[in-house]
Specification:
The complex is a heterodimer of chains A (90) and B (419). Helices cover 18% and strands 23% of the residues of chain A. Chain A is of the alpha+beta class and 90 residues long. A 5-stranded mixed β-sheet of chain A has the order 2-1-5-3-4, with helices on one face. In chain A, strand 3 (56-60) and strand 4 form a beta hairpin. Chain B has 2 domains: 80-105 and 212-385, Rossmann fold, CATH 3.40.50; 109-209, Rossmann fold (3-Layer(aba) Sandwich), CATH 3.40.50.1100. The chains are: A alpha+beta (90), B alpha/beta (419).
Amino acid sequence: MNRVRIPTQLRSLTGDAPEVEAQGGTVSEIVDDLEARYPGLKERLMDDSGKLRRFVNVYVNDEDVRFLDGVGTEVPGGAKLSIIPAVAGG
Amino acid sequence: MKYVEGLSCKECRRAYPIAAQHVCELCFGPLEVTYDYDALASAVTRAEIEAGPHTIWRYASLLPAPEQQRVDIGAGFTHLREAPRLAAEIGLKKLWLKLDGGNPTHSFKDRVVAVALSAARFFGYEVAACASTGNLANAVAAHASATGMTSVVFIPSDLEAGKIGATTVYGGKVVAVEGTYDDANRLCAELAGSRPWAFVNVNVRPYYSEGSKTLGFEIAEQLGWRCPDAIVVPLASGSLYTKVSKGLTELHRVGLLPEAPHTALYGAQPEGCSPIAAAFAAGLDDVAPVRPRTVARSLAIGNPADGVYALDTARATNGSISSVSERRIIDGMKLLARTEGVFTETAGGVAVSALEQLVAQGSIAPTDEAVVLITGIGLKTLEVLGKPQPTHRIYPSVEEVDRIFEAPVVVQIPEQVEA
């Protein structure tokens, strides 16, 4: 089982829970499992082709999945996932 | 906020009311402030702006900040100065420097923070926070102090000493985060969901980013209400670059510029952190993040959230986004100092070197009138120039000076006239 940090923008779907549990061997599988538990969540994170929306950043154990294999990134058991909207700054 | 309509998602266009919110709940796209441009067009005049204060607040009608909560420590309306010696050196006829080191904390960040904290006060926040590569930290801490707010600033742990000292002096909290700017920024994005703080570049970002438009406004006004052929802008997140362009476009939209801007916008990144330049060169619409390794720390954002919009701006204005080698960053700083007497930060060195390259390649024609944004001063990051050393060292004797300067200087001493 993995822990997933949910951003405020999606907490209406998780009953206000900031962190939930989900299962899967890859980011993609975890998103599918999240969708099964919290219907509507997947379309907020991914476009129709299954790609992460361009302002959604996903981290596996604090590593941006775009530095890894994107949604195909392997997720070891017990890993922490964070879903975070992209922000600018300087 | 007389002319502000609300917020709108830049991706899916969904509308939201004015609030401390930066992300579309539907698609995660960034939110942007929208205005009633028709009302602005009939209300705003050049004369009214020209009679306004010598700060960003001369453009108050075009900014999302209510008058009662306005935070003003003198940000904006910096000098636009002609640079004939630099122009001659790089082969341009007409070149201007926009000297934003003249702001209260010596960088353009005072513009965005003044607007962000005005909005933050309007929303009732008492704590101002941010992730920063340094300049933003200085600006947030200073503006917060001047308005009685508390500041909490998150910086990468390896930040230059000058930038840390120029933040702690204001008395706020300065938290060094083990990691890069992107790590600190990510932490702030998470904290914004649980802490009742105004993170200038997170939850009040729609207001914050509008402050950068004032650079576009000022350039046009200071040129006599007209646009230059080219503007060169250093690029980190891409926000400043897109907003300079928006500033020019808005002036036309509200009738202050008779013609649509023809200005080509050129973005400049350091080679060691150039994800937007790489995407532009490859013709991509997405920006792949990188791990920054650059001397230009204020531009070291490897995960630039406005990168995709910067690509749009470059293409829409017939400009480009390019990178300069790390070695040329320092060369650019020295060139500007040597020719124009301006000591800029590394970001300014990136912009000057990029300008030089663009002229050499023919992207900017010798007859074009160009403006280069000098976003901050060099004193905060002295260490990039190596250990400061005098050029000579002598004992206090005339002979020693003669040895350095070879031929003795002949001084004409007027004859004594007896009274």
